[in-house]
Amino acid sequence: MTLRLPALLSAFLVTATLACAQATPTQPNFLIIMVDDLNDWIGPMKGHPQAITPNMDRLAAEGLTFLNAHCPAPLCGPSRAALWTGRSAATTGIYFHIRDDQIMDNLPGGVEAVFLPDLLEAHGYHTLGAGKLFHAGDMAHSFDEYGPGFSFGPKPSENMRLNFEPNWTGPRYTSTDWGAFPQKDEQLPDYDIRQWAVERIDAGIQEPFFMGVGFVRPHVPWYVPQKWFDLFKRDEMQTPPYLPDDMDDVPAIAQILCTIPGFPTTEWAQLAGEWQAIVQAYLACVAFTDYQIGQVLDALAGSPYADNTIVVLMGDNGYHLGEKNRFAKMALWERSTKVPFIFAGPGIVADATSDQPVNLLDFYPTVLELAGVPARTPLEGYSLVPLLRDPERADWEHVSLTTHGRNNHSVRDRNFRYIRYEDGSEELYDHRTDSWEHTNLASDPAYAGVLERLRQGLPQADAPLAKDSHLDLTPYLRERSAAWRKP
Predict the structure, then answer these.
(1) 63-66 and 352-354: which strand pairing?
(2) What's the number of CA atoms in the CB half-sphere (13 Å) around residue 145?
(3) Its Gene Ontology molecular function terms (predicted)?
């Protein structure tokens, strides 16, 4: 039998359509880029006018940047534990650092969780990663394969510092220091992490895949080669606003909780003439990491996976660079909680921003919805897919919760930050007029309705501190940790 041309063409189109359907994966790939201690000092978020981040800028131009994203906890260990389990610190009791392989054993009775990579693997995903994804890399062995781990070095020597010795300001609890070191990018762990990611993409990956790449800088010490410092002129660096009396209207418990001996203070940095040098060093580290990110993005763009891969870039917590007399994380104010959170890829709006309050806890359910994978355990975040499709939608009624120690919480909506401490003390800041959080409005009767509304965002109950979760930086934290472990 001879087919006429229309029938022949129809048969060809059917065959071609079937072939395309078989060749195109139904599930997207994921490339997750995590950056340690990265606050909003990047181009897309305009947190600092002198930031140089061309690769994060171009990723933002290809997708959606959340301008009001916050971490579950202002410390990498508990923030990452929440990210990978989809359960908040108030639910798990993991308020501080914990070994990756101890997370599941520390969950309170009745609390269920599964690591996101493990759940994706059960639905056909190949998972792979490198660097700092969990707090210690992947001691939990959650990924199918893992490349190089990470370190915070190299350092000049075990006992040598370049510009800051913690004993100058208190007990030696921090590796905070800054300066041009080492000589070459190749000597830093982030170079090896980047190379692994590029080589794995170039070599080909089983699809669908979920790849995590965890970079270390700008975690302290702020060491990168001289060429990255040369991008910035120390004497021209802009420092954030600082008010000497900024803490006068802050509850006493907040001052105790967030003062960490051994870390630099703004008063010290001013007297020592080092504040601009610190800002230069932090931005140099960010620029260095931005370049590593660019290399990974270039590899993806030149691969067969470019059109079917969703890229997510995030920080794990924010970081103070002089605001409120501190250079540290571990606080419930904006600078410690606000993080970059960028999504780009098929089906996601391009060159868009959203000021809706979101949280890294939202990452887990968002990935599941994008991948078409059902949740196995309860999740506490919310899928961001509606915002990835329409950033302007007005029916997003969620707030963003950050927890630092048992019964210490911050609640963020579009306009306000509300903080409540375990002794009942409160703070309230109106970000429409006070983005630096200089004026605590909690005692102002005009804001009683706002306070009452935001109090509804607090957890109903906080789990005891998990037995293997710890942060012994101060006598206060050691004392409170013993009390927080009791039911």
Answers:
(1) parallel
(2) 12
(3) iduronate-2-sulfatase activity; metal ion binding
Contact 464, 406 (CB under 8 A): yes
Structure-block tokens of residue 241 = 């606003």
Does residue 408 lie in a domain region?
A: no
CB-based burial of residue 191 (10 Å sphere; 0-12 exposed, 13-18 middle, 19+ buried)? middle
CATH of the domain at 311: 3.40.720.10
411 DSSP β-pair partners? 401, 418
Q: Which residues are catalytic?
A: 76, 135
**What's the Cα-to-Cα distance from 262 to each of 173, 193, 283, 339, 376, rounded to whole Å?**
6, 30, 22, 25, 43
User: At residue 437, does pLDDT exceed 80?
Assistant: yes
**Inside any domain, residue 426:** no
Which run of H or E residues covers position 416?
strand 416-420
Query: Model confidence over 119-133: pLDDT tens digits?
Result: 999 999 999 999 999
8-state DSSP, 345: S
For residue 29, is it left (φ>0), alpha (ψ between -120 and 50) or beta?
beta
- Asked if residue 409 lies in contact with residue 403, where contact means CB atoms within 8 angstroms, the answer is yes
Residue 11 scores a pLDDT above 90:
no
Residue that has been written with the tokens 């997750």 in this structure: 32
Instruction: Judge whether 222 and 283 are in contact, CB under 8 Å.
Output: no
Ordered DSSP codes for 428-439: EEETTT-TT---
Closest C-alpha to 427, from 439, 435, 445, 414: 439
In a domain, 190, yes or no: yes
Phi, psi of 369, rounded to the nearest 5 degrees: -65, -40
pTM over 0.90: yes
Assess contact for 178 and 281: CB atoms under 8 A.
Answer: yes
* Residue range of the domain that includes 167: 27-394
Number of domains in the chain: 1
* CA neighbours closer than 13 Å in the CB half-sphere of residue 94: 32
In a domain, 462, yes or no: no
- pLDDT tens-digit series, residues 149-181: 988 889 898 778 899 987 776 666 789 999 999
| Amino acid making up residue 471 | L
Separation of alpha carbons 283 and 94, rounded Å: 31
